Amino acid sequence: MITLAIQKSGRLSEKTIILLQECGIDFNDLTKGSLKIMATNFPLNLLLMRDDDIPECIANNIAHIGIVGENTLIEKGFDLEITKRLGYAKCRLCLAVPKKSEILTLEDLNGKKIATSYPSILKSFLQKENINSEIHVISGSVEIAPSIGLADAIFDIVSSGSTLIINGLKELHTVMKSEALLIQSKNITDTEQNLIDRLVFRIQAVRQAKHNKYIVLNAPNKSLEEICSILPGMKSPTITPLVTKGWSSLYSVIEEDTFWENIDRLKKAGAEGILVLPIEKMIM
Ligand code: PRT
Ligand code: ZN
């Protein structure tokens, strides 16, 4: 049995539960508000808690693994392992200043007051850059600190950037990028590691599938060589002849990132009747 600590409610929780469900792991009483829930079809216990407490909980062997933002992991400073980057809850930790501020460069932060909920990350950054600022720790609503005279700048999470704009702030510098991470304790037995590996294998299959699409198309046989070079697929495409003489149907996998660019190339190469379908799981 392994114990996975996840955020009870917040920006990480919904996507984390969806990911576990996509991995085929079911929970009976998810909606009942319990803080400890057992999976019905995988040897896994869920612990639901504030994201800030997850790294410590793993460091103290209360949970074996956890899902947490990289920002929280680094800020808390516990010596834990990153098992897998999960690619959601993407954001960045930025220094920002009021739009009309006299602070234009990092050096201008010398002698200034910066409000943040991430003092540890900020302190290391300022030290590395040789900047001497005063760090003012606040636990929430960091972005209003300059307008109420509490600080000259802020250091906070930015995602779309709209919170900065609404509060009359502009980005000065990105200090780090963050995404959800699966993290684990360094005290794991072989049996526990085996279960973690099984979970990671499933996560990988779900994530791979999201990055790829299944593609079916028809093409004249003379174009097949060129089309195969555009669509290498998992090993190589499957080709079956059509009833129409000189034509074949081709099945392959295409990466989401290169999708539109490759569709144009496929059309130019003579592909027709292109169908693109989502993939549920992908095991390499
Ligand atoms: O209650 P608990 O302590 O568990 O939750 P929390 O309030 O500390 O965290 P929560 O749920 O807000 O965020 C959890 C994690 O999601 C963070 O630690 C990040 O890793 C990640 N994440 C991703 C974000 C954002 N995007 C985000 N936009 N965390 C916070 N924000 C906030 C930010 O603080 C700012 O107020 O959203 C605002 C900025 O958003 P934009 O889109 O306007 O730029
Ligand atoms: Zn938190």
Can you characterise this structure?
With 284 residues, the protein is an alpha/beta fold. The chain folds into three domains: 2-88 and 179-209, Periplasmic binding protein-like II (D-Maltodextrin-Binding Protein, domain 2, 3-Layer(aba) Sandwich); 91-178, Periplasmic binding protein-like II (D-Maltodextrin-Binding Protein, domain 2, 3-Layer(aba) Sandwich); 212-278, Alpha-Beta Plaits. Helices cover 27% and strands 32% of the residues. The protein has eight helices and 15 strands. It has helices at 13-22, 54-59, 70-76, 119-128, 162-166, 190-211, 224-230, 259-268, and strands spanning 2-7, 36-38, 44-49, 65-69, 81-85, 91-98, 113-116, 134-137, 153-158, 169-178, 180-184, 212-220, 238-241, 247-255, 272-278. The strands form three sheets. Strands 2-3-1-4-11-5 form a six-stranded mixed β-sheet. Strands 8-7-9-6-10 form a five-stranded mixed β-sheet. β7 (113-116), α4 and β8 form a beta-alpha-beta unit. The longest helix has 22 residues, at 190-211. The chain is globular. The relative contact order is 0.14. The model has no long low-confidence stretch (mean pLDDT 95). Bound molecules: phosphoribosyl ATP and zinc ion.
